[in-house]
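User: Hi! I'm a student and our assignment asks us to look at how structure tokens line up with a sequence. Could you show me two examples?

Assistant: Happy to help. In each example below, the sequence comes first and the structure tokens follow. Example one:
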Amino acid sequence: VSDIYPFGVYLAGFFCFVGSACGLLLVAVAAEFGTLPKISPTRPLYMGALVLLVVSGLTITFLDSGEPLRVFSMITGTNPTSMVSWDFYLLALTTIVTLICAIKPGKTLSVIGAMLALGIVVVESMILIVTSGVPHWNNPMLVVVFLADALALGIGLAMLYGHASDRRLQVVLATVLALTATATAEVAADILTQLAIPAAEVV
């Protein structure tokens, strides 16, 4: 995004870690309710999500703030209209809920964690959508792309953990990847259209 600071790689890493954590939480809640009966126990999924949330939510947030003490100003001087503030609080709450689930898994907390995870993914996609400096991101389909990517990453990690033979996971992953490809193609087509308009005006 910038020629001075490597925000492109930085943002990609951040979204990848957070998306993976949220995807793992969604897989865990599905396993808690018996939708994925072969995944048991669920504690390793919560532990994996917790590590990803800590790495992305704490480490990257501290680096982004420039000084760790600035995090306290984010807590005391939050802006309720800012998507970044919502993202910060959702990350913090999800990390706490995931930690509790990792210690003692349960259906109620897992549902809360899944709802928070969905909220994080939607808010982070909205951060890009409302960014006026990059018009190519102003596409509501980014919400679908982020949600599908999070699910794909979470399912992929669950399969790497030892559930690659789970037929249900395979079917869901194939469906999610198809959705990701469709949504990404839609966003790419919109970007190409936006790029073509200025070129046509110049001609």
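Example two works the same way, sequence first and then tokens:
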Amino acid sequence: IVVPTLQGKWHSVKIIGVIHCTHNQIHMPKYIVSLALLLFFILPALPTATHAESICPSTPGTLVKLPSDNNPKTSADSAVYFYANDCKRHAFPHSRVYFTWYSAFNNIKTVSAGTLASMPLGSNITYHPGVKMVKFSTDNTVYAVAQGAVLHGIDSESRAKELYGDAWNTLVDDINDAFFGDYIIGTPITGTGQYNPANERTA
């Protein structure tokens, strides 16, 4: 009897039993028929390893980096990546971005150059929503960061103070224009209640 395996391929299974032939008809013992039906319908429904478990070279949700080469002139070993459920490594463009997500460089797994190379590069990590405001090097607009890497221009200093307090100007980071494509420009914030930093941080 040929049955599908967990991988969706067909596999021959030898079943020992007695088959009776009468008047050109084949009569199979009931237990053989039941076993065949069990193999055909039940086995494909059994749980299998997930896609990430089967092909990801590391555990998704892990921070990874290369081991230090103890050479201050090189920088490849200082880059930290977030290894996500899509089995891709996502780079933190700068330590300022990293520290909007984490408080210290802890629990970072070092991996070999070969393992790192086997992890495809994904999109860059963007600023954590609600933590800081940002602006681009050649653009004077100050933006609030929302979920989904959406930037909302803040229409005035008084609005920025309303959202982030008297020290709002200490919470603005400059972003290199090269990373403009990492974000989506949304609608400007022009009124009270359009944006709440605390809600964005915990959404």
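Here is something you could point out in your write-up. The radius of gyration is 28 Å.
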